[in-house]
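Quick illustration, no need to memorize.
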Amino acid sequence: IGPNTNVIGASAFNKCGNLKDVTFSEGVKTIEDYAFKQCYKLESVNLPNSLNCVGYDIFHYCISLKEIQIGSNVLDIPYKQCFGYGCNNLKKIIVSPSHPFLKTVDGALYDRFKKTLIRVPPSLKNQNIKIPGWVETLADYCFDNVDFNKLTIKTPHLNNIENCNLINVQKIFCIPNSDVEKEFKLLEVAEIRSDKSTTEDFLNELSNESKNK
């Protein structure tokens, strides 16, 4: 895609079933909704540094996609965006450590500016995932097709739990008597463990676990 292209329109490559590779020149600033929807053979994407705006679910059901590298100027990935939905073989989401808005923690993608967990790659199967205490919102389908043993949540409040698609986790560790604990118990998605009597006990236990590793 040449340097004079600023916008890749909505559904521009929709169902390009044989598309395996896309090379972006610096210059692309916007990729609109569903731009690469159902490009079943697309395996990796390196989004350019010039990119500012990412549309809704641009990689919808790219089932062979294994790696997404996000340019340094992406301003926002909205939590209703369903990033990487249906990308069941996704292994890596890469962002620069100096990125002003996005970051990865244990392989998962976060918007640190809006305090949102955006996407956990499905390849993190059978892992123990920890959601940091600064996170406030779970993006739509952020756990799509993720199968793992244990989820630890260090914050007492989380928005959008009902839409995060958390159905394949075995155990959830969370702060006792928190809103998070109450909501997950209502959803009945997993075994809830909060056997410590206070928030302080819970956080101390997590700290001790880290020291012992």
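The first strand starts at residue 7 and ends at 8.
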